[in-house]
Every structure is written in structure tokens, then in C-alpha cells.
Amino acid sequence: MTDNFDDLRNSVILSELGGYGNGIFCAQYAKGASVVMMGTYIIDSARNIHYPPEFIFRPGGNYRSYFEAHIKEARLSGAKVAVSAIGSELKDVIDMLVTAEQCGADFISLCAHSAMELYTKQGLGYKLCMPENRDNLKRWISEILSATSKPLILKPGSVWHDYIVESVSIAAQSGTPIVHANLGLAFEPEAIATIGELSQIFDFVIAGGGITGIDGAKEVLEAGAGAVSVAKAAIQDVHFIEQLGRELKEIVISKSAQ
Ligand SMILES: Cc1cc2nc3c(=O)[nH]c(=O)nc-3n(C[C@H](O)[C@H](O)[C@H](O)COP(=O)(O)O)c2cc1C
Questions:
Q1: Count of structural domains, the chain
Q2: What is the pLDDT of residues 141-194, one digit of tens each?
Q3: Which phi and psi (to 5°) does residue 229 adopt?
Q4: Tens-digit pLDDT profile for residues 35-93
């Protein structure tokens, strides 16, 4: 089934912020956003993971009560809620994402963006989208899609890598509706061109990386993104997302009045 996600168009999305992006942070910092990306949450049995402890769960751990409370809290922002997860074992990631759905998440997200060695050494994290790992990417996406029902957002590593479009196409062909592109080298022509390519492949493209105001947001939307994502600027200014969201709405209203 194709969804055009019209309610998200030309909006601002709070990007994943491990260590920050729990329900309380989303409620405070993401007023005016259309979606808040909670997490990324780690689900892993590995020990001594260097990551904010609140965002790490063990397989079988009590993330259900955590998500029940934090998704409810995140909703106070007025936004829909997405939960982003990563882990060494596909079955654990699936369990976390299914639980997030059951606790009310509107979207689920697979983090294939992480540069943590724990994941890259297993061909996971951003390496999941490298050409040699495409079979595994396909397996992860297919199994997540068959176990879950909410729209899946794939967040690959920085999209200016030349192999990214071909790799994420596999995820789109398998049924992933949304890609979240981090431009990495924000506003380089190659990165901007990639947004256009991704918008031909996915139902919806979220793009961000280096957005500090309305000009950057407009450029990303004009390149073909459906919505812009913001991380650092949101941490720095509690009103940033609300202000940017308002400015984008004004542009859309004045365009439709013309
Ligand atoms: C403190 C911090 C934590 C982040 N944590 C995550 C994370 O857990 N998962 C993820 O996919 N991206 C994470 N990111 C990347 C952001 O979501 C975003 O893609 C990137 O910072 C580019 O956007 P920006 O220029 O608006 O910050 C993090 C970024 C920062 C600054």
C-alpha cells in the first residue's frame, strides 16, 4: 500500500538524538514538529556499551513500560512519534520495534546510520548499506516489515556516499516507505542531488543535516524532500523547531494563496 504522507509535507521533524531524545526532551524541544524521532535506542546483550545508559536495553528488558511512559510524554509536543532502534541481533530489534508499536508509536525506524564500532564491525550501523552487505540489508528490512505494521523509516549513513542510493533502493523495493537522509556534507551539490534521486524511489523523504534556518530548509524541500529534520539546532534552541515550523507554514500558505 502506498501512502503519500501528506500530513508530514513541508514540516519539521526532530531527528534522533541518542542521550537526549526521550519523551521528556521531545515534549519540550519539538513543539511544532510533525514527527519526533525518539532514540536511537540500543537493544543488545553486549556489555560496556559506550552510550547513554537510559537509551540502552537488554533483550527481554523492560522497555515496554519505558515506551508506554515516554511515547505518551513525547505526544505532548503535538507531534506523531517514531521510535528508532539498533542492535546486534535482528530478532531483538524486531521485538523492540514491535513493542514500540504496541505502546503507540506511529512510525518505527531502523538506525543504519550509527558509526559505533560494536555495529560497524558486524556490518551493521552505517555499514549495513555498504554494497557487500546488501543481502543482509534486504533480510533485515524484509523481516522487520513482515513483523511490524507501522510505516518503517530507514536511516542510512550520510547519503553523499555514492553507493547509498543503490543500497537503499533495495529497502524501498522491499517495501520501506520512508528514508531519512542525513546530508552529511550539508548542501554540497552531490548531497542535494541525492535528495531528488531518493524522492523518485521512496514514498517520502525526510532530509536534514546542517539545517540552521529557513533558507537551508527551503533548499532541502525544493530538492525533493517531503520534510526536513533537525538535530543540533534543536538542542541549542528550545524554540528552534517551533519557529522553523511556523516559517515553513507561512511559506506554504502564501504559495497556495498565489
Ligand atoms: C548528540 C547527537 C546525538 C545523535 N544521536 C543519533 C542517534 O542516536 N541516531 C541517529 O540516527 N542519529 C543520531 N544523531 C544524528 C542526528 O540525528 C542528525 O542526523 C545529524 O546530527 C545531522 O543533523 P543536524 O545537522 O541537524 O544535527 C545524533 C546527533 C547528535 C548531535
A1: 1
A2: 999 999 999 999 999 988 777 789 999 999 999 999 999 999 986 678 888 899
A3: -110, 150
A4: 999 999 999 999 999 999 999 999 999 999 999 999 999 999 999 999 999 999 999 99
Q: Is residue 1 part of a domain?
A: no
Q: Is residue 109 part of a domain?
A: yes
Ligand 1 center to residue 258 CA distance, Å? 37
- Residue 178 belongs to a domain: yes
Q: What pLDDT is stored for residue 253 in this prediction? A: 73
* 255 Cα–ligand 1 center, Å: 31
Q: What is the pTM of this model?
A: 0.96
From residue 51, how far is each of 70, 112, 216, 230 by CA, in Å? 19, 16, 30, 21
- CATH number of the domain enclosing 251: 3.20.20.70
**Rounded Cα distance, 205 and 164, in Å:** 14
The answer to whether residue 24 sits within a structural domain is yes
Q: State which residues form the domain around 163.
A: 6-257
**73-82 b/e with 16+ CB inside 10 Å = b?**
bbbebebbbb
Residues enclosing ligand 1, CB less than 6 A?
15-19, 39-40, 84, 111, 113, 155, 182, 208-211, 230-233
Atom of ligand 1 minimally distant from the CA of 109? 11
- 249 CA from centroid of ligand 1 (Å): 24
